[in-house]
Each structure stands twice: as C-alpha cells, then as structure tokens.
Amino acid sequence: MELDELKASWNAFDKRLAESDIVNLRMVKEMIAQKTRRAFDRIYGLNVYYFVVSLLILGVVFPYVYMNTPISTTSFGIVETILVIGLYPHIKKLNLLSKFNLEGKSCHELSSLVLQYKKVCHNETYWTIAIVSIAMVAFYITELGFNQQANYVLGTRVMLVIGLTLLTFALAYVIAQWQRRRHATQMQEIEQGLEELREFER
Predict the structure, then answer these.
(1) Confidence of residue 92 (pLDDT cuts 50, 70, 90)
(2) CB distance 120 to 96 below 8 Å
(3) Which segment of 1-10, 68-77, 152-161, 190-199 scores lowest on mean pLDDT?
(4) Assign residue 151 a region: left if phi > 0, alpha if psi is -120 to 50, beta otherwise?
C-alpha cells in the first residue's frame, strides 16, 4: 500500500513539474514575442512618421513655398512629380510591415519578410540619393536657366539659397545616420527574437 501511495505521489509530482515547465516555456516565449513586437512597433511607427513627413513636404510645404515665391510652375511640377516617385520605397516598406504578424505567421515567413524589408531599405538609400539629386538639379536648371520673372543674379541671394540647400542636406545626412543606427538596433532585436522563437516551433 505504501508503495502504491509513493508511486501515486511521485506521478502527481512529476505531472506538476511537467505542467510547471510548460508554463515557464510559455512565459519565456511570450516575453520574447513581446520584446520582438515592441521592436517591430517602433520600426513601423518610424516608417509611418517618415511617410507622413514626406506627404507634408509634398502636399503642404513645397506648395506653400511655390505660392509665396517666384518659383515657376514648371519647376514646381517637376519637383512635385519627382517627390511623388520618391514615395515608392516608403509605400513598399509599409506594405511589407503590414504583413508582419507574430501570431498568424511562422518564424520562417516572418524572417522572409524581414529579408525583403532589409533589401528595400538597402535600395532606398540609392533611390533617395538619385531622386533628391535629380529634383535639385532639375529645379536649379529650370529656375536659374529659364525663370525670367525671378530675375536671379549670381550674387548674395542665389548663394544664400544654395548655402541653405547644402546646410539642409548636411543636417538631413546627420539625422539619417542617427536614425539608421537606431533602425539597425531595432532590426537586430527583431531578427534575434525570431531566431529565439524559432526554437519553440521545433
């Protein structure tokens, strides 16, 4: 009788231990998932912010400058068109990020989305440089070369505009480098989280 009681007690203890291990694994998995989700939310929020800022520049800031300065309609049209084309990487990234679902997709699917996202980010650098360069060159050519109403003279006013443009580029570069480091850290957190979560799928 004592042996049967001992076996029953041992089996009950073994069951409680197994249940405790399952609970602990679930807690660990949820902690990793929450950390990964927070990193993803920060990246998604950052991309939404960039997209909104781009839309404000496109739809508010530059039109306001156009209406209050002697910028020609041709220059305005060219720059606006190029800025619209420049939104492509933002839209592509937001589309990929909208598919990121920790609960509904496997780690393999999520890792594939991360790789696609990183590829778009890599190409975006060259895309942005090309778009901005084309926009500025087209703007200065049409304004300085063909806008007779503005009466541009290669003097203080023109040099001031060019100086401010270069300063804006310099500030944008510094901010972009800082944001890129933050972005890289968050991407690393997501990739590490997915790697750890993959262990629970085995």
Answers:
(1) very high
(2) yes
(3) 1-10
(4) left
